[in-house]
Write a structure and sequence with these properties.
By secondary structure, the chain is of the alpha/beta class. It contains 20 helices and nine strands.
């Protein structure tokens, strides 16, 4: 018979399923087992230590929030690792991640800072070394030549990491009281809260002792006129008082839509530093450093594979590493190139499809049907040529995602209607022709899609 703790966890999972993807739910929540509870505590068992660290880092706040809702009271979570001979329990407590060099207790006083976002943990490459150098320089001399410091770049390239690294470094020197860190959303929410209570004097007074103000993702203030107005006055007060201001954004100041010109011009008063997408070498270094921080030995070829199938987003790189580690850990396999490829097979397939060219398809189909590439691009209508051409057009559309006009043009300047006809003909025939299905399967393998 199901006991109360199992019922609570079962209802918790129903709610959690509404907040996470099906894949993440299957990977990170289904393996968790209830192993006890009582006196306001729920004991949960996980497969291994990596699993425990990952679930605590990414989903513990969600779990506690949902448990509070389901149980109608606060519950502590006591984590246990399956078959852990040491019998250690990981009880719920303020989250502590691996410490980085030179971190002190002062850091925890500033809300929103990630303890892992330090200069020591930042991977420097050709595309971010200028921004990194600028940030280090600012920490050494606040309100100097680089005031304000404006850091811009795409999503997931390390802007937040550098911003928080500055905060950590400065807190070590002057203490948390003189550092104000906000995401743009948090700043706006706090401003609205003070306005609604008619306490604007108190809001502005919050920054009277600030030596360093950091605002992350300022682009979200677009068309938020009152927030921009208030920040304008805070900016002027701090700047005139020789206090350091640092902001991040996804665009160069002049390219930000919905931000007042007087603010955009002020962002250029000091130094503007950009972060570009990491090159392949930097991506590999990021994967290796993240694996090392998790205490995981990653073969070089696996690091290179993860980097090759990932885009420029650092969080995407880390997510793919986590998937490889999770899949191999949960299945009891070693982290090898073959097992990593299996864990990332959908990504590898997707990347191959994105990089596939019509020329590659024409070459593979011509070789398969033992005809020349020039034949497949010709105007010849004999079945020995026309049929392979239709297959190649189908593959170009189905897996290369090319438009019908592009396909027609690549096959001897044919009309797009010819490509449409070929695609529909082969698509329909695949349903009833086992031989064609086998040919398509072989061609997919030849093209590296399987």
């Amino acid at each position: 018979m199901e006991n109360i703790t199992e019922t609570i966890w079962k209802n918790c999972l129903v709610d959690v399923g509404r907040h996470v993807s099906e894949q993440h739910f299957a990977t990170w929540f289904r393996p968790i087992r209830v192993c006890g509870g009582g006196d306001g505590t729920l004991e949960l068992e996980v497969p291994n230590r990596f699993f425990l660290e990952w679930i605590k880092e990414h989903y513990q706040p969600l779990i506690l929030d949902v448990l509070r809702k389901v149980a109608d009271r606060d519950l502590k979570v006591c984590w246990k690792i399956k078959d852990d001979n040491r019998g250690k329990e990981e009880k719920e407590r303020p989250r502590q991640r691996r410490s980085s060099p030179r971190r002190s207790k002062k850091t925890v006083a500033v809300e929103g800072l990630n303890p892992n976002y330090t200069f020591e943990n930042f991977v420097i490459g050709k595309t971010n070394e200028f921004a990194h150098a600028a940030c280090v320089a600012v920490t050494e001399h606040l309100a100097g030549r680089y005031n304000p410091l404006f850091i811009y770049g795409g999503v997931g390239l390390g802007k937040t990491h550098l911003l928080q690294a500055i905060a950590h470094s400065v807190i070590e020197r002057i203490g948390a009281k003189k550092v104000s860190y906000y995401t743009s959303q948090n700043f706006m929410n706090e401003f609205i809260n003070y306005v609604s209570r008619s306490k604007m004097i108190e809001f502005r007074g919050k920054f009277s002792e600030t030596d360093l103000l950091l605002i992350d993702d300022i682009q979200f203030w677009a068309k938020k006129e009152r927030t921009q107005e208030e920040f304008f006055h805070i900016f002027n007060t701090l700047y005139e008082s020789h206090k350091q201001i640092i902001v991040t954004c996804d665009k160069y100041p002049k390219d930000i839509d919905g931000i007042e010109e007087r603010l955009r011009s002020r962002f250029e008063w000091g130094l503007v530093a950009d972060i570009q997408p990491p090159d392949e070498e930097t991506k590999i270094a990021i994967v290796r450093k993240k694996a090392s921080s998790l205490g995981i030995h990653l073969p070089d070829e696996v690091s290179e594979l993860i980097a090759s199938v990932s885009g420029s987003n650092v969080r995407e790189l880390e997510g793919h590493l986590n998937r490889v580690v999770a899949v191999t850990s949960l299945t009891g396999k070693e982290i090898s190139l073959a097992n990593a490829k299996e864990a990332l097979r959908n990504l590898i397939k997707e990347k191959k499809e994105k990089s596939l060219t019509i020329a590659e398809i024409q070459k593979a189909v011509s070789a398969f049907y033992n005809i020349k590439v020039s034949d497949i691009k010709s105007k010849r209508r004999h079945k020995t040529v026309a049929y392979p051409r239709q297959v190649a057009m189908y593959l170009s559309r189905r897996y290369g995602k090319f438009s019908f006009p592009e396909i027609g043009s690549a096959f001897g300047g044919k009309d797009h209607s010819t490509a449409i006809h070929a695609y529909k003909k082969i698509e329909k025939e695949i349903e009833t022709n086992p031989e064609l299905r086998g040919s398509i399967k072989t061609l997919r393998a030849d093209l590296g899609l399987d």
